[in-house]
């Protein structure tokens, strides 16, 4: 147990959380408008591939991130066309996008780079870590130096954006005109339509916002964490983000708490590998790897009946005459 340090787990939790936070906030916009966003996984994969490829080609991670956001927004528009304009099955559309992106990104990576379905290593072109002012001076101070310099500092810009996004999304949803219209479209679209709100336009806007926010999850995986694209590197992050939405009852702060919880268990899973537990011995790697998903099943089983989704979620809007 000597190798299992709480401090390291907490730092890993902060570094794992942005992937889930961006995806969960993206799903929050889409589902609050009334569209089930089951395609989070596919959008993460697509944006990760595009971000890594463009960042490598241009030797600029920011251009890669912008390219990933543009492609993910286009996928959001495609998803909106199926769900909003054509009034198709939103679950089927989401699953189709996930399957298509899983295969397409691998095939394109193999065709373009000939490296077994991965993109070249970005090396020095990854997003750098932010060193907070005064962190070196406080490095020798017990606890304070670690808290300021390692837990709070030492992360990429996208990490801080992910955490600042939580209060911003809360303000947009509950204190802005757009947020009021968004929630109205998800709860009672016919009442919103009667009040002069364009349900279609609002839902399309939500899908584009969801696409852009979700792209940051993929960019974080490719441009910050790994430095390259790998097939199915999202590893179910989109589905975990949806579970966090259920956990948080489609509210930003509680959803973020769910993301941190899953991030903690993912970090715990990594730190448990190779650790010898007293009286138990070394845990099998396969058993350790399923920890986040077992937690997901437990959360869904315990909270699904208590969660109250937007009333019009998954229901196509047909304008009354």
Explain what the structure shows.
The chain is an all-alpha fold and 321 residues long. The chain has a single domain, classed as ABC transporter involved in vitamin B12 uptake, BtuC (Orthogonal Bundle), CATH 1.10.3470. It contains 13 helices and two strands. A two-stranded antiparallel ribbon has the order 1-2. Helix 1 packs antiparallel against helix 9, helix 2 packs parallel to helix 4 and helix 10 packs across helix 11. It starts with 5 loop residues before the first helix and ends in an 18-residue tail after the last helix. The mean pLDDT is 88. It is found in: Cell membrane.
Strand share of the residues?
Answer: under 5%
Overall average residue pLDDT: 88
Main CATH class: Mainly Alpha
**Helix count?**
13
What share of the residues lie within helices? 55-70%
Radius of gyration: 20 Å
* Category by helix and strand content: mainly alpha
Determine the N-to-C terminus distance.
Answer: 67 Å
- CATH architect. name: Orthogonal Bundle
Write down the overall geometry.
globular
How many beta strands in the DSSP annotation? 2
Which strand order do you get reading across the main beta sheet? 1-2
Provide the CATH topology: ABC transporter involved in vitamin B12 uptake, BtuC
